[in-house]
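User: Let's play a game. I give you a shape written as tokens, and you guess the letters that built it. Ready? Here's round one.
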């Protein structure tokens, strides 16, 4: 395996080479032992894809070979659509999140984000939704734009700017000397008017959508999960109406009731984390097509890397509660998207999320559909990505073996093409 982009783009070459790299190869035929149509679960043997420029032209067992087409034989692998991570933090890396905000400059964090974007792409994630820069303002827009212009390698990005929270709420800088003006990881909004003003600033700064923290510090007592809500339904409605006015939407961090219910009633597009949803909330999510994004990997990582044994026990208990609730959510028909919350754990390792969703009761094909089909819808790109179809962007990966038989193969992506450009082969 060689990392094509790394060798070429990060060697000692001039800026003109970036532009050259961003030019997709003209005509390519990808050939592999198998091709998976995630929408139907059909495996074609062998599988071929004809790519012209940045788009897919033909998909099948044997596609046309126009004059000058380069045929790439990927051997005993399975071609499938590029993976989508609907919950990432490019600006975070393992270690204390609050301290990253306080200690690291935005230029430094932006370089870290660029390197995270590359790691995610190389792991097969060709599209992502960034759920907050955690104190780095609108710097995610610059990363997204640099990727789009071919300056740096990375997934297609939908970015939220800095997430919004109440004073003293989730992701605020709590526990410091109040006399010190310590930066919060979130942008403050304490009323409906505040939300509208902050949303206008975020969208002016280049955000594609808005992320709001709807629930605060989680706790459990006597095995019961508790989390306070942060905004009322009416406040969230004001936020959503402002985003709708500007042609976009709101996604929330919401771990449990009543906040999850308030967010769904107001009409958010996704409830991220969703440890606990009432029957009424689950029913409403099914009817309104609101996605739950479970983010299991982060809890597992926090349990495995807890600084105290009590911390590890707490995280494992939370994961166990969430896994049981997830089964209820599946039974209730809650639409699912796949989001890992990568950043606090290492970028490029987040295909573990698909494995955990299977482990907690979802069929492998359903997980793949949640990832690429629902993920594409949630990102607003379902007419262009998430499927191997003529006219779609050539966002294609290859994995060893069949992911419907062993979802773990998504952790060993061998080939990555995004928009017709090969990044890993
Ligand atoms: Zn997150």
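Assistant: Ready! My guess for every position:
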């Amino acid at each position: 395996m060689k990392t094509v982009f790394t060798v070429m783009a990060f060697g000692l070459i001039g800026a003109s080479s970036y532009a050259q790299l961003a030019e997709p190869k003209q005509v390519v035929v990808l050939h592999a032992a198998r091709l998976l149509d995630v929408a139907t679960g059909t495996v074609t043997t062998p599988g071929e894809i004809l790519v012209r420029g940045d788009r897919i032209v033909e998909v099948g067992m044997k596609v046309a070979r126009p004059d000058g087409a380069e045929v790439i034989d990927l051997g005993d692998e399975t071609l499938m659509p590029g993976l989508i991570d609907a919950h990432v933090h490019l600006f975070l890396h393992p270690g204390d999140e609050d301290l990253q905000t306080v200690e690291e400059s935005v230029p430094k964090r932006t370089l870290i984000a660029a390197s995270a974007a590359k790691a995610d792409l190389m792991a097969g994630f060709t599209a992502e939704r960034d759920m907050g820069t955690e104190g780095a303002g609108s710097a995610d827009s610059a990363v997204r734009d640099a990727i789009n212009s071919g300056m740096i390698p990375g997934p297609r990005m939908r970015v939220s700017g800095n997430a919004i929270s109440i004073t003293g709420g989730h992701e605020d800088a709590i526990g410091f000397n109040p006399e010190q003006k310590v930066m919060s990881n979130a942008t403050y909004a304490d009323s409906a008017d505040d939300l509208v003003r902050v949303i206008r600033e975020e969208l002016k700064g280049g955000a594609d959508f808005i992320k709001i923290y709807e629930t605060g510090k989680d706790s459990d007592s006597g095995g019961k999960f508790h989390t306070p809500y942060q905004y009322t339904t009416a406040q969230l409605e004001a936020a959503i109406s402002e985003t709708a006015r500007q042609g976009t939407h709101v996604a929330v961090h919401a771990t449990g009731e009543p906040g999850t219910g308030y967010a769904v009633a107001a009409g958010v597009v996704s409830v991220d984390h969703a440890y606990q949803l009432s029957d009424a909330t689950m029913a409403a999510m099914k009817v309104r097509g609101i996605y739950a994004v479970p983010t299991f990997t982060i809890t597992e990582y926090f349990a495995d890397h807890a600084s105290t044994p009590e911390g590890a026990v707490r995280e494992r208990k939370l994961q166990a509660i969430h896994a049981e609730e997830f089964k209820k959510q599946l039974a209730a028909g809650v639409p699912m998207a796949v989001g890992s919350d990568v950043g606090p754990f290492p970028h490029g390792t987040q295909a573990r999320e698909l494995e955990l969703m299977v482990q907690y009761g979802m069929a492998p094909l359903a997980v793949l559909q949640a990832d690429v089909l629902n993920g594409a819808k949630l990102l607003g790109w379902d007419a262009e990505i998430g499927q191997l179809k003529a006219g779609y962007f050539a966002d294609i990966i290859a994995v060893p073996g069949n992911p419907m038989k062993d979802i773990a193969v998504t952790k060993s992506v061998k080939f990555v093409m995004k928009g017709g450009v090969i990044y890993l082969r």
